[in-house]
Every structure is written in C-alpha cells, then in structure tokens.
Amino acid sequence: MPSRPKKLPREFFNRATTLVAQELLGKLLIHTIEGEQRIGRVVEVEAYLGPGDLAAHTARGLTPRTRAMFGPPGHAYVYLVYGMHTCMNVVTEPAGTGTAVLLRAIEPVKNLSDKTRGPGLLCRALGVTLQDYGRDLCSDDFHFAVDPAAEPFNIVERPRVGVDYAGEEWAAKPLRFYIEGNKYVSRK
C-alpha cells in the first residue's frame, strides 16, 4: 500500500445502516494482534435494521446477548452461530437503535489466509473472538480505514443469506451488498 490508510471516524457509523453497509464495501478492516496487522478489504455485508427487522437479533428487544447492538455506533457485536462459528457485526446509528452490519466476506490484503469467504471464516482469519464483543472499532488496534489503493466497483444488492425464519417480507429484502465480480464474495 503506497500510503497509510485513513481510519474511519465514529461519525461514519452513526448513519443509516444500509448506507453504512454499502460504504463499508472496499474499506480495509485492520486488526492488530500481538503486533501483527491482519488486514482485509470488506467485499460483502448484510444490513440488519433493528427491532422491527424480524431477521435481526434485536427483533426480540434488548437482551444480554444484544446489549452491544443497542450500544453506541462503531462497536463490535460478536456472537456464536451454531455454537461454534464466530460472527461480527458493526453497530450503526445512534445508541438504542439496535442496528448493525454483518461482515460476510473480506478479501485478504495482509497476513490473512484465503479462507475469508463467510462470516465465520472471516472472523477466524482476522482473529476475532467472543472477547471482541463490544470492542471499539475506532481504536488503534481494531478499526476500518479508507484504502488508498481502492479501485472503483459496482455494488450488487441481494436478499440476505439464511434468514427465511424472518418471513417472506424480511427474507426477500435486498439488504445484502457485495462487490460485483469479487472472487471472495461468499455467495454469488
């Protein structure tokens, strides 16, 4: 990378969730663990729109599990799916809203394996664990940044993956966004 990536400010996350989701595409996610930077380019995300969204974890309201999702923007909501795969969401909009963006896939940039297609593989590659629940994503060792080498791309909008339980209305909403033609997208 020719120049240092510029860290995204908290205000970036304190906006409409679908806008944040689309604008996270192409950004770098930088996680520093024991002095080693692991960097991936965000290529696929899903938006979750709060308690009214029947696919969102916050559809059942504030619980110990969803506390971080109701917290301030720019923090991590990390949880286990199927009791074994770590997934990470980025909290958006003002505190109390219960909205977030699920990270579905990243393109490896530095110190990552090719296995980053899917939320669980992405977290494993970045070293994201349940210990990162509620972490500030505007910190020096865990943050998003503008990629100075970013090239233009088209965004594809599709329904989210695996949310049929939310009913036809919510399952069919085009709230999954990914970079067209990127080989690291989990599902085309």
Report what the structure shows:
The protein is α+β, with helices and mostly antiparallel strands. The chain has a single domain (6-174), classed as 3-methyladenine DNA Glycosylase, Chain A (Roll), CATH 3.10.300.10. The chain has helices at 10-13, 17-24, 119-126, 168-172; strands at residues 6-7, 28-33, 36-48, 76-81, 85-92, 99-110, 142-146, 155-158, 176-179. Strands 1, 2, 3, 4, 5, 6, 7, 8 and 9 form a 9-stranded antiparallel sheet that branches. The longest helix has 8 residues, at 17-24. The protein is globular, with a radius of gyration of 15 Å. The mean pLDDT is 95.
Secondary structure elements and their pairing?
Blueprint: E1 6-7, H1 10-13, H2 17-24, E2 28-33, E3 36-48, E4 76-81, E5 85-92, E6 99-110, H3 119-126, E7 142-146, E8 155-158, H4 168-172, E9 176-179
Antiparallel strand pairs: 1-7, 2-3, 2-7, 3-6, 3-9, 4-5, 5-6, 8-9
